[in-house]
Specification:
A hairpin with an 8-residue loop joins strand 6 and strand 7. This protein has 11 helices and 9 strands. The relative contact order is 0.11. With 407 residues, it is α+β, with helices and mostly antiparallel strands. Strands 2-3-7-6 form a 4-stranded antiparallel sheet, with no helix packed on it. The protein binds flavin-adenine dinucleotide (FAD). Flavin-adenine dinucleotide binds next to strand 1, strand 3 and helix 11.
């Protein structure tokens, strides 16, 4: 891959840059929180997405009829690189645009795509992902929520948990068990549903950071039309895998305080009567995180290069999260230590850089779990990238209702 812009790419980059400079705020190393329980932040996020949509920047690589402009993968990368330099809300649409959109694009009917994809791209309707359950997270195929067919409808009962954004989502994608008599991966089906359907109860979970971004979701006799099934009955696992591979890409490198925020902080904090930035240990740590950030950037480019060749995102996209999530936690922890006693302050009004490191430290542990834990991602890389022997899976071919958890 040639990292230098061609003249056309340079022209496109300038176009992105010009628009962003007129319409967005520069990042000053202290980005605002992504806590969307905060109604103002939710409003800001929707307004930003709509502004991008109206100007044709929302989902560059999507086809025109679904709200994109059919841009090339390179143009998509250039836009993402330029947008990342500005302090703009991002996380709220990650699940919809990064996971639900691609799965709808692949499995929904033409009419459904035309109805749902543009409003998703515009930020008018928000989507969530209803996969995890109290006893099925890493082993999501072990889920117990079930759907039973009744005429042209399915009736869903059960519980999901950790559903990000369910409290403000309009629609969701869900995987449920439709046949308990076959092995766990074979008895699942996949649907999308209206989150305002009768029988859905959403209960936000309060997090250690003070935010409440995810939820428990209860289903009691929720009726979903068969026309909202994505993929064949019993092939929900295959559809879920498309979503999960896109999930690794979508949340590969979360928005976070990086070496640049640490450099800024190190200029303001004193150690032994001089700015911390002059301290060799601090400089060496900043250099380490700079190297990791560059490694992540180029690894992501490798994934995007294979996307540009029309390939599906592969298991190697897991590497981004294996590195970036612990990096977020370590960097935040180091920056808090550097502040001495002030490091325990978590009040954006008074803490250094609006408490960006404190908030990041509180949420980083969650990133190491969301979208596949560190251990699960290592298993994926070991088995599917390095070709090492598989984890032992004794329950793989046993009918679900014969497993202790399935009875
Ligand atoms: C911030 C956040 C947002 C989330 N958002 C969503 C969402 O929007 N939608 C959704 O459906 N889910 C969501 N989740 C749930 C997330 O996908 C699960 O928490 C995750 O898959 C882990 O499942 P679990 O919590 O049940 O842990 P478990 O699967 O019970 O794991 C417990 C521990 O055992 C380890 N472990 C499990 N299996 C293995 C194995 N085979 N080999 C080695 N170690 C293993 C794990 O690594 C972990 O340390 C979110 C989670 C978080 C933290």
């Amino acid at each position: 891959m040639d990292f230098n812009d061609t003249p056309e790419e340079a022209k496109f980059r300038k176009k992105c840059r010009d628009w962003l400079e007129k319409n967005a705020n520069y990042k000053d190393g202290s980005s605002k929180s992504e806590d969307f329980a905060n109604k103002d932040r939710l409003k800001d996020a929707k307004a930003w997405q709509k502004k991008k949509y109206d100007a044709g920047w929302a989902m560059l690589h999507w086809p025109k009829e679904y709200g994109g402009i059919g841009a090339s993968s390179m143009e998509r990368i250039i836009w993402a690189n330029e947008e990342a330099k500005f302090d703009v809300p991002k996380g709220i649409f990650e699940i919809g645009l990064g996971m639900c959109g691609p799965v709808m694009m692949e499995y929904a009917s033409e009419e459904q795509k035309e109805r749902f994809l543009p409003s998703m791209a515009e930020g008018k309707e928000i989507w969530c992902q209803l996969f995890s359950e109290p006893s099925a997270g890493s082993d999501v195929a072990g889920l117990r929520s079930k759907a039973v067919q009744n005429g042209d409808k399915w009736i869903i009962n059960g519980q999901k948990v950790w559903t990000s954004g369910a409290h403000f989502s309009d629609f969701g994608i869900i995987v449920v068990r439709t046949d308990p008599n076959v092995a766990k991966h074979k008895g699942l089906s996949f649907f999308f549903l209206d989150m305002k359907s009768e029988g859905i109860e959403v209960k936000p979970i309060r997090q250690i950071s003070g935010g409440a971004n995810f939820n428990e979701v209860f289903f009691t006799d929720v009726r979903v039309p068969d026309s909202q099934r994505l993929g064949e009955v019993g092939e929900g696992w295959k559809v879920a895998l498309t979503t999960l591979m896109n999930e690794r890409l979508a949340i590969g490198v979360p928005k976070s305080a990086d070496y640049s925020s640490l450099t800024k902080a190190a200029k303001e904090i004193d150690i032994n009567d001089e700015p911390a930035i002059k301290n060799d240990l601090v400089r060496s740590k900043i250099a380490d995180w700079y190297i990791q950030a560059e490694g992540l950037k180029y690894t992501k480019m490798r994934t995007l290069t294979s996307l540009s060749k029309g390939e599906t995102p592969g298991p190697e996209s897991s590497i981004g999260k294996i590195v970036s999530a612990p990096k977020m936690q370590d960097l935040a922890s180091f920056a808090m230590d550097l502040q001495g006693a002030a490091g325990i302050m978590n009040d954006a009004e008074i803490a250094l850089l609006h408490s960006i490191f404190q908030s990041q430290w509180l949420s980083a542990a969650g990133y190491r779990i969301a979208g596949g834990t560190d251990e699960i991602l290592r298993n994926i890389v070991a088995e599917r990238v390095l070709g090492l022997p598989q984890d032992v899976r004794v329950d793989k071919s046993v009918p679900f209702n014969e497993l202790p958890s399935g009875r």
